[in-house]
Amino acid sequence: MFLSILTRKMFRDVLKHKVEFFAITVTVFVGVSFYSTLIIAMDNLTRSYNYAYEQLHYADFAVLLNPTPQKIIYELRKIDNVENIEGRITVNVGIYINKNRQIAGLAVGINSTHQPTVNNVKVESGRFFIPNETNTCLLEHHFAIAYGYKEGDNVTLIVHGVKVNFTVVGVVASPEYLIIMSGLWEISSGYTYGVVFLPLAKLQNMLNMSSMINEIVVTVKDELKINTTISRFKEILNPYGIIKIVKKTEQPSYKALQWDLKGFGEISVLFPTLILFVAVVETYMTLKRLILSQQKEIGILKTMGFSKKRIVFHYLSFALLVGVLGSIFGTFLSIFLSKEITYFYTNALGIPFTLTSVNYKVIGESVVIGILACVVGAIMPSLMVVKLKPVDILRPYISTSMIKSRVTSFEKLLGRFCFLPIRIR
C-alpha cells in the first residue's frame, strides 16, 4: 500500500514537471549515446586497423640499406624467428600530373611474379601484375582517388630527371600507407604526394640496379624476440651498408594512426563527460526545487509512518527513472550510429577493411554511467529530507532546516563555474 502511494505520487510529479524531467532525460540520452557511440566506434576502428595489418602482413621491421645483391634474401630467410621476408627497391620520384603541376612521390619495386608475402597490397580495382609485364604500375588508392586515375590510364613518372610512362593496371591499398606521410610528420591526402608500385625488374633496369635491392621488409614469428632478430640482420648486412632499421611501431604512418586513435578516445570521454555533468546539475536543481515545494507533503508522509529511508528512496527514484530511460534509448541509438561513424571514418581514411560489432560491455557501462550521473545529482537534494522535522514542516512557514540549507556548499561551488540562477519557489 505504501509503495503504491509513493509510486502514484512519483508519476503525478513527473507529469506535473514533465518539461524539466524531459530535459534531463534528453541530456542523459545525448551524453550516453555520445559515449557509447564513440567508444564502440573507436573499438571498431582499432579492430579494422589491426585486421588490415594482419591480413596484408604488415612488416614488423624494415631495413633500408645501400644497393645490395638480391640473393642476400636467401641467407636472411634462414635466420631463426623470420616468418616472411621480401626484398624490394624504393626510390623518390616526381609524378607528372600536367604541364602546370608535378608532385613528389615514391616508386616501390615489388616482385611481379606473386603478391608480396610482406606488406601485401589489396587490389581495390583492376588487377595485380602479370609476370614479365614491363611498363605497368599499380597506384596507391589515396593518390588514385585524388586525381581520378583508374585502370587503363597512363601515369608519367620522373625518375632521375627522365620521364617514363606507365599504364595503370590496378588501384591498391597498402598497410604501409593507411595514412600517407609525405614527410616525417606531413600527412597527405594523396593530392600532394603519391605512391606508385612498379614491377621490381623494371625499376631495377631503370636505376641500373640489376639483381639489386635497397630495402628489406620482414615479419617475425615472435615479436618478443624481434631485437635478437634485428641484431642478426645487422651482423649479416653491415658489410653492405645499413642506412637504418625501422620497427613497425616507429613507422610514421603507424604512429599517425595510433595518435589518431588516441585523440578519438580522448574526445569520446571528454564530450560525454561534459554533457553528463550538465545532467547532474539539472537533476540536482530540479529535484531540490521539487523537494522544497513539497515540504508539507513530506511532513504528511512522515506522520503517516513512512520512514526517512523510504522517502529518500522515493525521490531518488525520479533520478533512476530518467537515468534508465535516457540511458536505454541512448545506447539503442549508439548501436546504429557507431556503425555509421566507423564506415564514414574508414572510407574517409581509405582503410581497406571495415569491421563493426556491438560491444555489449560498453553498452552496459554506458547504461550504468547514465544512471549514476542522475543518482549523483539526486543524492544531495534527497538527503535534505532527513533534516526535515514534521513539526516544523507543518507550520505555515518554511522550516528552519530548509532555510539554513537554502544555498548549499555544492551550489556555491557551482556558482563559480556556472552562471545558473538558484531560486526557490
Can you give me a brief rundown of this structure?
The protein has helices at 2-16, 18-55, 72-76, 141-147, 200-206, 226-237, 252-293, 295-303, 308-349, 360-387, 390-393, 400-404, 409-417; strands spanning 61-69, 82-98, 101-110, 122-126, 136-140, 154-159, 162-173, 180-181, 187-188, 193-199, 212-220, 242-247.
Task: Describe the secondary structure blueprint for this structure.
Layout: H1 2-16, H2 18-55, E1 61-69, H3 72-76, E2 82-98, E3 101-110, E4 122-126, E5 136-140, H4 141-147, E6 154-159, E7 162-173, E8 180-181, E9 187-188, E10 193-199, H5 200-206, E11 212-220, H6 226-237, E12 242-247, H7 252-293, H8 295-303, H9 308-349, H10 360-387, H11 390-393, H12 400-404, H13 409-417
Parallel strand pairs: 3-10, 5-7
Antiparallel strand pairs: 1-11, 1-12, 2-3, 2-6, 2-11, 4-7, 5-10, 6-7, 8-9
Helix pairs in contact: 1-9, 2-7, 2-9, 2-10, 7-10, 9-10
- Order of secondary-structure elements: HHEHEEEEHEEEEEHEHEHHHHHHH
If strands are numbered along the chain, what order do they take across the biggest sheet?
Answer: 2-3-10-5-7-6
Biggest beta-sheet profile: 6 strands, mixed, barrel
Radius of gyration: 33 Å
Q: Class by helix and strand content? A: alpha+beta
Which percent bin holds the helix content?
A: 40-55%
Globular, elongated, flat, extended or rod-shaped: what is the shape? elongated
Q: Proportion of β residues? A: 15-25%
Per DSSP, the total helix count is 13
Uncertain stretches:
397-403, 419-425
Distance from N terminus to C terminus (CA atoms, Å) equals 31 Å
Mean pLDDT: 86
Q: How many β strands by DSSP?
A: 12
